[in-house]
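lol so apparently i was supposed to do this last week
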Amino acid sequence: MVPVRLAGPRLALREYRHTPEEVDALHALYGDPEVTRYLPFEPRDRETCADQLELYLEEAMAEERGVYRLAVVRREDAEDPEDALPIAHASLTLGKYRSAHLGYVLSRPVWGRGYAGEIAGLLCELSFGALGLHRLAARVDVENEASAKVLTRLGFRLEGRVRHDLYKGGAWRDSYRYALLADEWSGPAGPPQGG
Ligand SMILES: CC(C)(COP(=O)(O)OP(=O)(O)OC[C@H]1O[C@@H](n2cnc3c(N)ncnc32)[C@H](O)[C@@H]1OP(=O)(O)O)[C@@H](O)C(=O)NCCC(=O)NCCS
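anyway here it is w/ coenzyme A bound
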């Protein structure tokens, strides 16, 4: 496996490690009902998060990697991103014909700082750069306005509405599909600002 390491101005994406602290960090995300509100699953307990982390590491070791689940850390928290604890989660699931679906989940205390745009930008860099993909898509609950803004700002285009895409909390939910093609991507962000 070639470990993924990507850095933006404020954030870095790296592989997960199976430590109790990283399980806690994942649980801080997935245990929070506000965070999972528009995600296709209910809040998860710590044990489930530990199992998930194990799965992420197994997926990363696959001979042909089809899924990238990455820890997002703040660069200001440690000189080496390996030493900083995750504050968010990023994912890329590869599909046919050089395509992938992206995802990002941030812990509530760091919402509203524009971090999701930086994460999605780094996932574009990985997808259209090193992985040579052609199409990057995202599924967004129709009520998740913040996520729709993040994607639109990066140049993703709305392709349609999928009715009753998800059954959650006793109700059907619709979602939007957004996508960005390789030649629509504006390219990697400039060098990190500041120290
Ligand atoms: C949705 C999410 C990724 C947004 O990340 P973020 O880093 O907080 O987003 P930003 O700070 O860049 O905010 C994005 C925009 O949405 C706006 N916004 C934030 N919350 C909003 C809300 N409840 N309704 C409408 N707009 C909202 C912000 O004002 C901002 O717009 P602006 O830049 O024009 O002011 C984050 O809240 C999150 O992780 N939520 C839980 C998991 C999730 O939904 N993931 C996405 C699945 S598709």
